[in-house]
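[Help] Beginner question about ligand-bound structures

Sorry if this is basic. My supervisor gave me a protein sequence and a SMILES string for adenosine-5'-triphosphate and asked me to "get the holo structure". I don't really know what that means in practice or what format the answer should be in. Inputs are pasted below exactly as I got them.
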Amino acid sequence: MALACLNAWSMKLPPGPPPADNNNTMSTPSITKAGRTAAADDQLTPSRKDTDAKNVLLLGFDWGTNTSCIQGTLPGSTELAVNELVPTVVGYAKDGIVSDLLPGNAKILFGQVALKHRLHLRLVAPMANGVLKDMGPARDFAHHLRSLIPNAAGLEIRSVIGVPANANNAAREGIRQTVAGIFQRVILIPEPFLAALGYRGENQLSSPGYVDPVRNSLFIDIGAGTTDVCLVQGYYPTSEDQISFAFAGDKVDELIADGIKKTYPDCELSILKIREIKEKHSFVGQATQPILVSVVVGGKPRKLDLTEQIGSACNALLTQIFEAVKALIPKVSSDSVSELLQNIIITGGGSRIKGLDTELQRLLAEEGFDQPVVKTVGENYKQYVAKGALKAAQQAREDQWQQLLS
Ligand SMILES: Nc1ncnc2c1ncn2[C@@H]1O[C@H](COP(=O)(O)OP(=O)(O)OP(=O)(O)O)[C@@H](O)[C@H]1O
Ligand SMILES: [Mg+2]
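Answer (accepted):
No worries, everyone starts somewhere. Holo just means with the ligand present. The predicted complex, written as structure tokens, is below.
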């Protein structure tokens, strides 16, 4: 990972870093970790606004396994021209469907509409474990998002795209190829850093007591495919600053499904139903009351006690997160670790699991860490990566954009 890339646009650092990408061919400036940490004390400022050009539409794009978000601004405006959350799913009409079943007799539908008509569609999720797995549907999906941007005809579209913290070169190249011809220029940046940038309250930076999440925090992004745990210390995170593992919402769904199968072998529930139940009842720690869920099996109503199944699946996720956090904290310099412990932030859909912040905080305190404070970003979690990506796009220098050949 070209670790110094982001510094140039976000801070006063030596000029000339390359785009925030692995495959860039430009030279990487040599900035030591110490140098970068010191630079974090500087005011974060955009270095140049070449992208204010008249015909450039800037986009922040969170391409999530479960849900994607785009936010964009038209040339010369800071108002959002597009702000869309779309379930990352593509539905292709099944063969032999009678007319007028699908809206407009569409052959292909996306997001909520695809989910609504799923009976008559072959549903494809283009992402798995945070990376693109199916280029055709992924490209169809990107085209669809592009079509949601109003008044974009004739504009050059430049998009900062979030990638999982540990995305390798192949995954990055896959994204570039997929969006070639749909967007004209891109920069790929790790999602936890973008989440921190999106969560950052610029108007609070001068308030006493406000700890800037971009300056010194530990971000935990629990998505559908991956959980990313990442040190964010004012510079572009290196591979050593992050741990990413494919245990997140989808895996929790699987564990709950396995648990239900064991206890109630005659109750086959769809994964969508299990996800719905999880999102309503998820918790970590001890259950405060039994979780009794009404379902319909084989046309008959049933009431299932799912306390144990949901609790053990969510607690398994908590254990993995705790281990990752424990492994990362010792890498932080002794000068900044106390402040960082006060700024452990959980985002992504998994942050909505009840009690996750207090339980993680309790485990860290029991482990002997100095007064840890864990918080969650709240219900707007879906937008922070895209918001951070748009901020990054607005601040990027001209030479940081990678041109895509269609
Ligand atoms: N209340 C909740 N309790 C537990 N899990 C939840 C809750 N709300 C959402 N989730 C889960 O969060 C996950 C989706 O989170 P998010 O939208 O951050 O994922 P994503 O960005 O699409 O995935 P990724 O970052 O891995 O590519 C899903 O597994 C969803 O079921
Ligand atoms: Mg995500």
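A couple of things worth pointing out: Residues 1-52 have pLDDT under 50 and may be disordered. Residues 64-67, 130, 223-226, 248-250, 275, 278-279, 282, 348-350, 352-353, 382 surround adenosine-5'-triphosphate (ligand 1) (CB under 6 Å). Feel free to follow up in the thread.
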